[in-house]
Every structure is written in C-alpha cells, then in structure tokens.
Amino acid sequence: MKKVLIIGGTGMVASRFVDLAKDKLEIVSVDEKTLDIIDNTAVEKYFTKNKFDAVINFAAFTNVDAAEKETGDETGLTYRLNVLGPKNLAEYCNDNNTFLVHISTDFVFPGTEEEPGPYDEDARLPETPVGIGWYGWTKNRAELMIQNTSTNYAIVRYGYPFRAAPFDLKKDWARNLINLYNEQKLYPMFTDQVQSVLFVDDLVEPLVKIINEEISGIFHVASSDMTTPHEIGLYLLGKYTGKPVELQKGSMGEFLKAPGRTPRPRLGGLKTLKTQNILNLKFKTWRAMVDEFVSQLNT
Ligand SMILES: NC(=O)c1ccc[n+]([C@@H]2O[C@H](COP(=O)([O-])OP(=O)(O)OC[C@H]3O[C@@H](n4cnc5c(N)ncnc54)[C@H](OP(=O)(O)O)[C@@H]3O)[C@@H](O)[C@H]2O)c1
To answer: Which is nearest to 43 in space by CA: 104, 1, 95, 105?
Structure first.
C-alpha cells in the first residue's frame, strides 16, 4: 500500500476522502497545527522525520470573497497558503522523488464570454488575471509554479464539490441549498451559469488510481456533463422532498455586474473525457451524483 500524506486533511473535501480511502492507501492526515506548509523550515523539518510515497495537497484558502479583499497582496494569507505553501511542497517532492498531487479548481479559468468553458484538461492556463478573482488567480499561479518546478506531479481540478456525510465546519452548496429551501429563504437560482459538480465520494477512485500508478498530468474529476444552478437545484430539491418544486430564476450575468462582486466563472465547467480515458474510468452524470447524494442523506 502506498504511504500518502494528506495536507489539509481536516477540510471539507479531504476529510471525506480520508474516510473513504483509508483502506486503499496508508494515510497520514495532517492539519495546519501539525504541518504549516507556509513555513518552509517546518516543511523541511517534517519531511526529515517523515517519508511518503506521495503527498496530496488539499490545503488552501478557500473563502473566495475573503480572498478577494487581499487582491494583489503577495504577503496576504491567500497568496502565501495557495502559492507559497504549494511551492514549498513542490520543491521538497521534486528533490526527494515524491509524487505530488495538487488539488485545484475550475476557478483558475475566467469563464467569461471572451474565454468561455467548459474547459478541457489541455486548455491554456490564463496568463493574466483578467476576469479571475484573487482566489482563482492564486490557484492559477500555483498550478503554473508546480508545472515549472515538478517532474512527477498530478494537478487534479474539480468544481462545486458536495458531500452527504455531515461536516459541521463548512456548508457546501448542496447543504446550503437544502437549508435555505427548508427555511424558505432560497434566493433566485442562476439559469445562465454553466458548471460541473463533484460528489466528493466520486473523487476517491480516480485519486487512488492516480497515486497508485503515479500518473502525471492535469486531471479533471467532475460530473461527466454540465448543468446550471437552477437546473441542479430543481432536480436535487425534487429528489430530496419527493415532490416537484419551483425555484425562482436568476441571472449570474446580472449578479456579477453589481459593484463589489467577486469575479467567478459564469461560463465554467470542466470537461472530463481525457481524464476518463487515461484512468479508464467512467464518471457519473450530475444527476447520478445527486441521486447518490440524496440516497445517502436518506439512509
Ligand atoms: N470547496 C470548494 O468549493 C472547492 C471547489 C474547487 C476546488 N476546491 C479545492 O479543494 C481543496 C479543498 O477545499 P475545501 O473547501 O475542502 O477546503 P477547506 O475545508 O477550506 O479546508 C482547508 C484545509 O487547509 C488546511 N490549512 C489551512 N492553512 C494551512 C496551512 N498553513 N498549512 C497546512 N494546512 C492548512 C486547513 O487546516 P486547519 O483546519 O487546521 O486550518 C483545512 O484542513 C482546496 O485546494 C480547494 O482549492 C474547493
């Protein structure tokens, strides 16, 4: 069994991955207190004592609106955690022949009319931050840095992850949707946003395969098809309540025009065909992911 270090293991996506992959990989999961990846000395010290076949970096500053307040500030936490932390890991892994899996996002792309998605694995990584928020830009710079630093690495992108297993620290979009619906506080759902989603449990098989076979490259692990927040909201709440629901319609294009909005991909989404072919796996549609989510909520 491969011995794998999970960084950011207490996070929303990683904690579920750890639960489901622990009989497939020998996992050591750390949080910030055990290993602060921003601190290069701490990283060197940790790896002097502990050796791994692979490292998966889930750690990131993920609050997109809070990150936006640090735009342009390379001394801010967002840049340090999302770029300098991965740099420390990439340098260590490269020098010690350790396979690095870096978790990334569709927010590295602008998703604008000018440069619309859905993007495939070989899509050109934007070289300017036009249309991209600070969170996405720092994740973009980390990808570039890893590609320039590392030889034995995988970058795994996904967007809009959701999980059925309870997680109290942070609500994903699906949990938010259900809560707001139950509280009758649901806002209009966008009909003009293109997105792919990921049921977190479906990350396990691809990621374990990438690690076990040390397959290098850029991978998209996501639903095999695209949806909109309105479409998936209708479907999810219909399944969850067992009856057809009605949702107000909204426009992300209009929403983003208001002053002070954080840029987010409107025409986003990740194509997965290349990843499915390389890994010889068939990814679920977003409907099948939602079906599994609701079925787990009901058991
Ligand atoms: N959530 C999304 O919608 C989404 C979408 C696409 C991609 N992603 C990517 O998926 C990954 C996981 O996202 P998530 O939302 O599950 O994360 P999350 O819940 O925000 O968790 C972040 C993790 O990073 C750790 N961390 C913070 N500062 C650290 C440091 N200095 N050194 C080491 N670890 C540190 C945290 O540990 P402590 O709790 O100890 O601070 C926590 O375990 C990220 O790379 C993110 O960019 C997320």
So the answer is: 95
Q: Which atom of ligand 1 is nearest to the CA of 63?
A: 20
Tokens representing residue 220 in the block: 């998209």
Q: How many domains is the chain partitioned into structurally? A: 1
Among 128, 112, 202, smallest CA distance to 160 is for 202
Backbone angles phi, psi at 246, to 5 degrees: -115, 140
| The ligand 1 atom nearest the CA atom of 170 | 19
Tokens at residue 4, please? Answer: 């794998």
Domain that residue 230 falls in: 3-297
CA atoms lying within 13 Å on the CB side of residue 246: 1
| pLDDT tens, position by position, 246-277 | 999 999 999 999 999 999 999 999 999 999 99
pLDDT, tens digit, for every residue of 46-68? 999 999 999 999 999 999 999 99
Give the pTM: 0.98
**What is the CATH classification number for the domain harbouring 28?**
3.40.50.720
User: Does ligand 1 come within 6 angstroms of the Cβ of 136?
Assistant: no
| Beta bridge pairs of residue 267 | 194
